[in-house]
Each structure stands twice: as structure tokens, then as C-alpha cells.
Design brief:
This protein has 170 residues and is an alpha/beta fold. The chain has one domain (15-169): 3-Layer(aba) Sandwich (Rossmann fold), CATH 3.40.50. Helix content is 27%, strand content 29%. The chain has an eight-stranded mixed sheet with strand order 1-2-8-7-3-6-5-4. It starts with a strand and ends in a 5-residue tail after the last helix.
Length: 170
């Protein structure tokens, strides 16, 4: 695991890369994210088909105390789950143009009192909140994944600092 630190205007911004060797490990990282999540958090997931975005979202759901098995909302665009906080699991997979994302009317979710997890977020980055935690996922081998955590804003820098101290060492 490597940490890159870059001085910003008022805060230290950093990114963390983590290697996951199994779906279980990816879910455990997600569980810790869910445990740390606060109302209004936005977590953006980017990666190719089958890289484990939904697996990570499942862990986040469990970390929020949600017993349901979170499934990809690809065909309905959004699924809502109730736990310690509401989880809004959004998926842009079936969308092709930024205008489609912009006209979904997601502001109540993205700026609401729950936690938003957005799969295929790269399709809507221009209209999503500026402050968020971006997680880029890359397949390294059949069961091995690289997760790159890129916090945007002080809330997510702190969240990633807490994650780095706990989940990434297990």
C-alpha cells in the first residue's frame, strides 16, 4: 500500500491504493466504509464490468447495518435500503449521455440524509457533488483487484485517514 501526499491550499490531500485478493476482502473494506459513513456521504465507484463494484457496495450496506443483500440496480437505476442510515445505491451503467444523468432528479439523494453509492460514476462526474470519495477499481488477476481511493474534500480525507488506520491493515 502506498500513500501519495500532495499539499493543497488548506488541507493535505492524498490517495491510497489497496490490493484485494478476494471478494471477501473487498467486502470487508466496504464494511469498514459503511461503519464510517455519515449522512450526506457520496461514494463514487469506477471500474470495468465485473471488477467488484457491487461487491464493495454490498460491504458498505453491511457496514450500515443493512441485512439485505445489495444487488446491482442496473435495471432500475436506484435501490434504497434502510439501516443505521439510508443507503441509496445508484447505477449509471445503462446511461449513455451526461444529459440522462443530469435529468434523473437525484439531488434529494445526493444531498440528502443518507449515503449514496454510485456505480459507473464516470458517466456522471460532471453533475455529481464536487466533494466525494472516488474509488477506482482495476482487475489485476482473476480474483485480485486494485482499489484506488481518491478523496475530494475534507470529509473524505478524514474518512480515508480512518480507513487507512483500520481496514487496510486487516
Amino acid at each position: 500500500m502506498g500513500t501519495l501526499q500532495v499539499s493543497g491550499l488548506r488541507e493535505t490531500v492524498f490517495s491510497v491504493d489497496v490490493t484485494s485478493n478476494s471478494a471477501d476482502r473487498t467486502r470487508r473494506v466496504g464494511v469498514r466504509l459503511g461503519e464510517l459513513a455519515m449522512a450526506g456521504d457520496v461514494i463514487l465507484l469506477v471500474g470495468t464490468l465485473g471488477v467488484g463494484k457491487t461487491c464493495l457496495a454490498q460491504g458498505i450496506a453491511w457496514g450500515l447495518g443493512i441485512d439485505d443483500y445489495a444487488v446491482s440496480p442496473s435495471f432500475v437505476l436506484l435501490r434504497e435500503y434502510q439501516g443505521r442510515l439510508p443507503l441509496y445505491h445508484i447505477d449509471f451503467y445503462r446511461l449513455d449521455r451526461i444529459e440522462e444523468v443530469a435529468h434523473l432528479g437525484l439531488d434529494d439523494y445526493l444531498y440528502g440524509s443518507g449515503v449514496c453509492v454510485v456505480e459507473w460514476a464516470e458517466k456522471g462526474l460532471q453533475v455529481l457533488p464536487r466533494e466525494h470519495l472516488l474509488i477506482e477499481m482495476e482487475r489485476l488477476a482473476p480474483t485480485k483487484r486494485k482499489l484506488s481511493f481518491l478523496p475530494q474534500g475534507p470529509r473524505y480525507v478524514e474518512m480515508l485517514s480512518q480507513l487507512e488506520r483500520s481496514a487496510f491493515n486487516s
